Amino acid sequence: MALTNYTTLKASIANWLNRSDLTDEIADDFIKLTEADFNSKLRIRKMITQVSITIDSETESLPADFLQVRDFYILSGSRKYPLRYMTPSQMDQTKGTSNTGLPLAYTILGDTFRFMPRPDDDYTAKLNYYKKFSALTSSNTSNFILTDHPAIYLYGSLFHAANFLGGYNPQQVQTWQQMFATSMERLEQNDREDQYSGSPLQVRSEDTIASPFKSVYSTTTSST
Q: In angstroms, rounded to a whole number, what is the distance separating the alpha carbons of residues 65 and 145?
């Protein structure tokens, strides 16, 4: 059976499991768990998108489909001012958190960005980030993963189904798990090869990705 949309995917999973009584479980559990898995693991070009954010307060909401920052900068005229990531504890321990001015750093607290210093005006920022793939539903019947890499959905759902149902040969369960992992690794490899095809690899500094950085501020020291 061709895996062309949400309906055929559910039917194929049921056929592989030889179970026609799991309609709700396939849709509500196995497919959703698979989507959570590949959104957590994959970081490929198809997941990158850009939005404009107006920074006019110390905190701003994350996009609803946000996974991870790739680049983050304030755009003022033709100039770009990169925003550097700091951990929440680094920001709390840094002098100048109560100052106002052009934001130079950010952190992530729950579902919000926090900026330092606090903005003294309205600033337009560009956020390039990795977004979640849209979930399959009765109204959203396909996405990039299902169209171009259906094995990820199939083997991921079979693996989660086997864990839920029990009674399957452990070797079969392991095979489905390995095929699921291999399908995602193949997608990542293809993405890397396409990204660098025909050009030499270059080391790139990701100063605005969420990872440790040198602070642009002085850290608090204990007074004597």
A: 16
pLDDT at 127 over 60: yes
Residues belonging to the chain: 224
pLDDT for res 212: 32
Q: Which residues contact 113 (CB under 8 A, 6 or more apart)?
A: 53, 59, 60, 61, 62, 106, 107
Say what the pTM is: 0.83
Confidence of residue 97 (pLDDT cuts 50, 70, 90): low
Contacts of 5 (CB under 8 A, 6+ apart): 141, 142, 146
Residue 81 to residue 74: CA distance in whole angstroms: 5
Tell which residue, 72, 66, 194, has the closest CA to residue 130: 66
Residue, of 219 and 106, whose pLDDT is higher:
106
d(CA 111, CA 31): 25
Q: Which residues is 50 bridged to in the sheet?
A: 128
CA 4 to chain centre: 24
Task: Quote the CA–CA distance of 25 and 221 in Å, as a whole number.
Answer: 55
